[in-house]
Amino acid sequence: MVVMDMQNLLSCSVLCCFLLFILSGRQQTVQGHRHLPSNIRPLKLFVFGDSYADTGNTNKSLVPWKHPYGISFPGNPTGRFSDGLVLTDYVAKFLGLNSPIPYEGWKSSSRGIPLLQYGLNFAYGGTGVFDTVVSGPNMTVQIDFLEHLLRDNVLTTKDLESSVSFVSLAGNDHFTYLRTNGSAQGLKPFITTVINQLAINLKRIHGLGVKKIAVTGLEPWGSCLIPYVTNTSLFQQCNDTYNSMVSFHNPLLKQAVEKLNSETKDSPFFIIDLYASFTSALKNEGSIKFENPPLKPCCLGVSSKYFCGNVDENGAKKYTICENPKSAFFWDVAHPSQEGWRAVYSALQPTLEQYFHY
């Protein structure tokens, strides 16, 4: 899972070892060993949310389907909001799975059941629990897609009972509220409605049979750690409104997850702490170090009206790319690079080992 053109930002943003990405029935695999603890058995993975989780569902007219996205892996755009892998890919890697096929990729294929052997990814860049300024299915509709597959016997209850779910909510609802003239005074009540709807969605996924469900907290949007927030000030100034947004959202999410777990016998819900993992990675506290100034994205528009991947009417590039994407935590103004996500994943591994078990 802001002061720019939200249509473009949410389309190429949030708002929202390894694997493979399946496109048109073809799998692309990234090499790596499994990080699956011995007490976890292979599972399907069902993914919901936004651009931090999307591996190819977003409309193909938008920037994640354009060069230079995907230049690090697999070498061409795959619809991921990155130069390569995203958080979904690393979560699947941890589980010892190949990254599940995007729902849109499955629909455009022969729709064969074997393509669903690793689960399915329903996440669309720019979406939230409610409708956002980006035209894409909100989380309720994404869950509807899964329910329809159960109803049509494409998936079975057994498939879901042997699965886990990853849910990404990175802020698109909040930014849509602010962009559509929502008041600062009304932000906290609005966030409460977001958390309430998210809780309904999480409970619904569990009710369909999924045994373990991870949901992301908000990353540090207001801290001087996200280039989207600091872009117009040459990556220097922070934003008190976004600080307030995150500091209210994350504790409220924690309360909601605790309540959901108290209502079940198996405590299936847990939070992926993007705030702490982003902060740790950006401060170079882990084993992966970033030489590029951490707030400067590798791929950056030549002015505030352009974004990574934009070209003019003559096809001329309106963006620049850093020499080494591995040196930059951020790929564009809102999304980590493949190496950035690897650093975040490294910080998250203890949490995944603690909660993704049976």
From TrEMBL:
* Alphabetical UniProt keywords: Hydrolase, Lipid degradation, Lipid metabolism, Signal
List the InterPro entries hit by this protein, alphabetically: GDSL
Its GO biological process annotations read: lipid catabolic process
Pfam families (UniProt xref): Lipase_GDSL (PF00657)
Give any GO molecular function from the UniProt entry: hydrolase activity, acting on ester bonds
Hey, what's the signal peptide range on this chain?
Answer: 1-32
What is the recorded name of this protein?
Answer: GDSL esterase/lipase
